[in-house]
Amino acid sequence: MQKIFLHGLGAGLISAIVCLFYSELYSSAMDVDFSDVINIFSVMGTCLFGSLIAAAGYYFLTTKVSDRDIVDVVFNIIFLTLTFLSCIYPFSVRLPFELESPELFPGLVIPMHFFPVLFWIAFNPAFKHGRS
Description:
Layout: H1 2-30, H2 40-64, H3 68-86, H4 89-92, H5 105-123
Helix pairs in contact: 1-2, 1-5, 2-3, 2-5, 3-5
C-alpha cells in the first residue's frame, strides 16, 4: 500500500512541477496572465489531490482483482477516461470580464489535465506494487 501512495505522491509532485513550468511557458509565449484564475497553490493542490485519489482508486482495485496486469490495464483506462471527462470543465468555467484573451484559457489548462496520468503511467515501471 505504501508503494502505491508513494507512486501517487511522486506522480502528483512531478506533474505539478511540470504544470507550473508549462504555465509559465504558455503565459510568456501567448503573452497572457491567468494568475487571477489559477495560481501555484491551485495547480499544486489539484495535481497532488488527483494523483492521491488515483492511488486510492488503484489500491481499491488491487484489493478486488488479484491479477496486477489486469489492474494496471483497467486502472489506466479508468484514469484516462476520467482525465478526458475532466477536460469539459475548462470550457464551462466563467472567467472574470477583465481578463484578456479568455479564449486562450483552455489551451493552458487542458494539457495540464493530462500531466498526472502521464506521470502515473511513466512511473509505473518503477513502482511494480509488490510484483517480483
